Amino acid sequence: MVHISATMFLTLDGVMEAPHLWHPAYVSDESLAVLAGQLAGATAMLLGRRTYEEFAGYWPHQPDDVPLAGATNGIRKYVLSRTLGNPGWGDTTVLGEGVRAAVRTLAEREERVLVAGSARLVRELLERGLLGELQITLDPLVAGRGRRLFADGAAPVRLELTGSRRLPHGVAHLVYRPAGMAGGHP
C-alpha cells in the first residue's frame, strides 16, 4: 500500500491559509532541510487543485538554485480535481475520480506520496483513514483569521505524536500518526 504523508505550515491558532504572507519570517536552513528531506523521501506529490494552482504559478519560474525548486519541479505530481483541465506543469497527472479512487491509482504507481498544503484533501484523507503521517511546521504566530486546517465541523481524529524537533525562530516541527477516529469529542 502507498504511504501518504502530509506536510504543512500552521500558526498557533491553526491557520494555514496564505503561508507566503507569514511563514517566510520563520524560514531557516534547518527548516529548509526538513522540507528537502520530505521531498527527497517521496516518489510523488499529491495536491488539491487550489494548492496545485498556487504551486504551478510559482515553482516553474524559480531557478534550480532557489531552495527546494529543483526537487519540487522534478517530482511527479498528481492533482485531485474534477475541474482542472491541462495541468501544464512538468510531470503532472490529474486524478478526478475522488479520494479513494485516487489513492488506489497512487497505490499502483507510487510508494511514498507527499501531500503539501491542501487542507480539504488532508482532512478527507484523515477522515477516511488513508493518511499515514501528518507533519506540521508550527510557527509561533497567532494569525487571528484565515482558513484553518481543522475548522468547526471537522471529524474528530486521534493523532499520536511520533516526533518533534525545535527549529530556529521558535518554530516546532511535529510529526503525528493517525491513531483512529475519536468517539465523540476529545
From TrEMBL:
Residues 3-171 form the Bacterial bifunctional deaminase-reductase C-terminal domain. It comes from the Bacteria. Transmembrane segments: none annotated. Gene3D superfamilies: Dihydrofolate Reductase, subunit A (3.40.430.10). GO terms for molecular function: 5-amino-6-(5-phosphoribosylamino)uracil reductase activity. One of its GO terms (biological process) is riboflavin biosynthetic process. PANTHER family: BIFUNCTIONAL DEAMINASE-REDUCTASE DOMAIN PROTEIN (PTHR38011:SF2), DIHYDROFOLATE REDUCTASE FAMILY PROTEIN (AFU_ORTHOLOGUE AFUA_8G06820) (PTHR38011). This is Deaminase reductase. It comes from Planobispora siamensis.
